[in-house]
Amino acid sequence: MSNEKPFYPKFSYDAHARTCAEDDFLGQTRRTVQGLPVSDDQIQMITTAIKSGLKMRPDDVLLELACGNGALSHFIFDSCQEYLGVDVSEYLISIAKKNFEKPPHYKYLMQGGAEYMRQESQPERFSKALCYAGFQFFSADQAAEILLILFNKFKNVQTFFIGNLPDKERAGEFYKTRQPSIEELLDCSTAIGIWRTQDEFTRLAELAGWKVSFSIMPTEFHASHYRYDALLSR
Ligand SMILES: C[S@@+](CC[C@H](N)C(=O)[O-])C[C@H]1O[C@@H](n2cnc3c(N)ncnc32)[C@H](O)[C@@H]1O
């Protein structure tokens, strides 16, 4: 028997985005199906799910982790009073600042999610939090730390919407032609990130003190067959 570990590709959103056209916002964050950008209807389904999940109110101050290039989040600006989007990619944040930032109330910041959480000096200002198609790219340690800091230090955050999580129980619906290794499914530095079952996700969130509920997008949504959304509350 061979001791060689099965090969699988690693992925960097920052490096990938730099290969796309400057205005290919959906390509930069791989919001594509078979290489083509998803339709406006799909984007609207996402923003509707986020706004209704978080029960956005006009006086909300929203924190978004792993916000990417802002192409999604700017659709939420009209539902909140203030917004801060944080992402580790220098390039994607430069695109967000250039195209979508509306200072002083709707701003973007380049920083790793866990580093930002540790150093934020005014955490009480936020009332809601969001991480869409991004949480799976935090390492297991970072994910646990972010959930804990959000619960303990960002005390006014009532709900945290964590969307588009890859469902380990349905990985076979995505990987139709090959069987990925466990190592690959647990690696945050692939194009899909860490796959978790809803039970695994519940344990992670509950360890930090959160209550969790799950939802799955309607079948018309391009990724509903292998992804779920989580809503964390106190
Ligand atoms: C698929 S994109 C999603 C972007 C955006 N949320 C959206 O839905 O359009 C994943 C994002 O996670 C970001 N990311 C990965 N690791 C991160 C980290 N440790 N801290 C902050 N952002 C991170 C990447 O830079 C990338 O922008």
From TrEMBL:
Q: Domain Methyltransferase: where?
A: 63-146
Q: Signal peptide location in the record?
A: none
Q: Which InterPro entries match?
A: Methyltransf_25 (IPR041698), SAM-dependent_MTases_sf (IPR029063)
Pfam families linked:
Methyltransf_25
Q: What is the name attached to this protein's record?
A: Methyltransferase domain-containing protein
